Amino acid sequence: MKQIKHSEIAGRLLVAERSRVPIEPLSTAYPAISVTDAYQIQIAQIQEKVAQGAKIVGKKIGLTSEAMQQMFGVKTPDYGHLLDTMMHVDGDTIDIDRFIEPKLESEIGFVLKSDLQGPGITEADVIEATAYVVPAFELIDSRIQDWKIKFADTVADNGSSARAILGGKSTELANLDLAHIGMVVSRNGQQIATAAGAAVMGNPLRAVAWLANALGEFGIALKAGEVVLSGALTAAVPVKARETYTAEFAHIGCVSVSFGEGRRRVE
Fold first, then answer.
1. pLDDT > 90? residue 64
2. Where do the domains of the chain lie, and which CATH numbers do they carry?
3. Which of 129, 198, 222, 234 has the greatest number of C-beta atoms within 10 Å?
C-alpha cells in the first residue's frame, strides 16, 4: 500500500492545477486515505500558495445538500479555502482554458464583520457576525481525472474550488429570510434552473454555523472581512466558452459571469 505523504500529494495536485492535466483519484491510489489526511493535503496546498504570495480571503462550504451527502456516503459537508487569486466580480469574463472540466454553482455569499469561532456557534451568532450577503457563483474544477471523486478526493482538492464570483449588491440580514429566497439561473438568457435558499441545509445560516464549529475544533476562526460561500442551491452546471450565466436572487440581487476562450497554456 502506498504511503500517504501529504506534501507530496499536495504537490501533485498543484501541478495538475497548473498544467490542466488531472491525476488519478487519490482514493484509488491511496485506499487508506482518511478525511484527516485529505484536509492536511488541502492545507499543504494552501500553505504553498500563500508562500508564493496568495492571501486567504475566506472559505467555501460544499456538499450541503442531503442528496450530495448521500452520493458521497457522508453525513457532513466539507470546506475549502478561498484565496485572493481566485476572486472575481460581477460581470467578469473568465478564460475557460485555465481549467480542466469546470462547472458552475449558484450560492449565497456571506461577508463577515466580526470573527466567528466555534464550538457552540448558532444561526443567531452568524447573523450577528455578518456584515452583509451577496449573490455569488463558485466555479469548481476537479484536478481528479473525469470527476471520479470520493469525499477524500474533493476535500484534498480544496473542495474542488477554482474561482468565486461575487455580485455587486450587498444586503444586510435584518428581516431577510434566507431559507425562502428564490433564485433563477440562466445561460445566455435562457432559464436553466430554479431553487430556494432552503436547498442549503435548510438555511444557509446553518451551513455557516456548521463551518465555524467545524473549524473551531482546530482552533481556527472565521475572520472579520472574510467571505464565506455557503453552498450550492442547485446542481453544478458544466460551462463552455462563449456562455454567460446569471443568477437572480429575490431581495439580494444578481450575479453574472461570462466565459471566454483563450489560448491554452501551461503556467
1. no
2. 6-260 (3.90.850.10)
3. 222
